[in-house]
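S1.2 Input.
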Amino acid sequence: MVDRRLHAHNLRQGRRRSLSVPLAAALSVTLSHASAQSNEGAVLEQVIVTAQKRQENLQEVPLSITALGTAKLEELHVTNFEDYAKFLPSLSYTSFGPGFSRVFFRGVSSGDNGNHSGPMPSVGMYLDEQPITTITGALDVHVYDIERVEALAGPQGTLYGASSQAGTIRIITNKPDPSKFAAGYDVEGNMLGGEAGYVAEGFANLPVSDNAAIRLVGWGKRDAGYISNVAADRLYPTAEITINNADRAKKDYNDVDTYGARAALRVDLNDSWTLTPTLMHQQQKSNGAFAYDPSLGDLNVARYRPERADDRWTQAALTVEGKIANLDVVYAGSYLKRSVDTEQDYSDYSLFYDITYYYTVYNDDGVTIEPTQYIQGKDRYKRQSHEIRLSTPADKRVRFVGGLFYQRQQHLIEQRYKIDDLTAVFEVSDWPDTIWLTEQTRVDRDYAVFGEVSFDLTDHLTLTGGARWFKAENSLAGFFGYGDGFSTSGSNGEALCSGLLGNDAGDRSGWVPYHAVGTAPCKNLDKSVKEDGVTPKVNLTYKFDDSRMVYVTYSEGFRPGGVNRRGTFPPYDADFLKNYEVGWKTTWMDNRLRFNGAVFLLDWDDFQFSFTGENGLTNITNAGGARIKGIETDVEFAATESLLISGGLSVLDAKLRGDFCELLDGQDRPLPLSECFAADPHQGPDVLRGAGDGTTLPSVPDYKANLTGRYRFQMGSLDAFAQAALVYQSESRAALTAFDETILGKNRAYSLADFSVGFGDGAWTAQVFVNNAFDKRADITRFAQCREEMCTKPYIVTNQPRTIGVKFGQRF
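S1.3 Output.
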């Protein structure tokens, strides 16, 4: 809808903006200009959040929170994670395509490879009350009919627990409302280069009775491709075979189709109890690669095997809210099922393995064949979570919120590394053309008891203390490795099965097939680990008046530990993040100017680091410590009745504290940096597999800022607007170790600009927009297909190029 929120007390709930400090000059110009205009009625409405598990005014919550409400999300054309991520100053991320993003807050990033058997994410993702974080990336929820997105920066270990070590993102949906009928739809057409895309969305809020309603939401979206698979030759020198991908060459081949629906029911059983069951389903199909090869030119890549992903998930959730005496009671439970099928080209590994080890493969007739590998993957997730909590009235001098939490995540993993027409001698038994097989079951369980107590020492001073006791269990079982006939299979695969049984290689007597997604020859991996601990929090808040406060916080966040499938690597322990923070929440100029911020110092001890080792296996160690210092601010300013300006800024100094080495000695301790070397497979000097004290952490920009201005005006009898949104992110490292960075390069600094204009009459709106108007490239992720000293070809995951679109929406 056209923005009417700058009229007196008519700003829509949930809008919150930020303004970056480096852009203060622009703000001062606006202030002086605004003084010459009428500002009568220009006011910011309060923002309600539930970050502390109860409804509160944003300005009264002693946490660093960015809240993007319904209107803001619509104005910025947010439809997925990447769209809103760029407007969250404290957030950075890496990505390998839709549904495969790793999220970081406040620079808490070690550059791990995000493998399915690796560490849990350090940022928790929630859909309403339910966690939706999975091992290889959170659900890429389509953003429509969303009440707000809350981004909580800093450890949330007390109320949110595991995987909210550095922060939490909460997607809050609009709920059914029995009091009124409402409906609407939005349609969009867009052009990305020469390719067309669209978005079609709609919702309906249907009262069933005075105490019940159903809310239905549906969406369909097509994202046009922008990466081109160009024709190229590839020579395997040992096999003396040249291949060509001309039959797969295609312009703009990484298109994405997303479809989904959400249904929610609200039933007010009586004045005290409400039930809200919700069912949500989404399917996202993508083709091609989402990274380009800079050596082939802008947005070009050369791939020789099919690449695609089919990501399907369904979540059923139930929230029960009620009262027992003067206690508020909430139960939140969910069941998530996610299925992901992928195909991936792995020809870089094949080429560099050929160059390094001079290997050849052949068919059953003994004829040498091309060694091009490709991966067919199947991931099957099941997750259930349950939380019950109690809270006392918010207006009491002593307030409490606390409860119990349990979740169980199961991840069934199948990855087939295939070579067409491969001889049965090299195959994993009963898996045609499969040179390597992963068939595993990973289970993560979490139990917790948590609570926070707030005590108003005076009318102005409040003390809050909290803690979370947790118990975590991680297990990994199944099969991984080569078949018996492959020459390097002695430490894994079927040869390891024989070794575990005490049999000679090739002796299958006593083997019991293992089933995860498919059936593997045997079980050669069965490990588990358990641990428990406590994460505390202490906060002291001082309110000068109803418009200004400061707070001081000490808090901790954690990630559970886990097991390594490689037998020579021990289990890895939980890692903890300690947060020392001073923040402020202030409102000025008769509620026209909101200025919030925080200064913080983080100590990250013995952080979990995953990296690719021998035979492409992921290894995880507790191999380092880091210290992160930073400041984050945001401002929202109603300059006049017609002009709203907002922005945000994050400044980070994230560095290793002490030397880092990913290699272990005989006592499973990191080697000294002076000994942290591995052989170069290309016969060059030994490679340093570590980094020195003071090295900047990867994927962490020193600066990230955004600025948005929205101007409302009359166009005849219609309400109209013009908007500009700018984003800047400074350079960041692509990898933790210096050697890896010499291969990958740095993530370059970038600036993005989005513009839109539109008009409407309140019941309908029409607009034209240009996203990434100057067609700039953002380096989101740089990677190689395998360990960098072997696969020396870097790829760059980037943002969408310039996109021009038109959008029409109507509300009833």
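S1.4 Remarks. The chain has one domain: 21-658+693-811.
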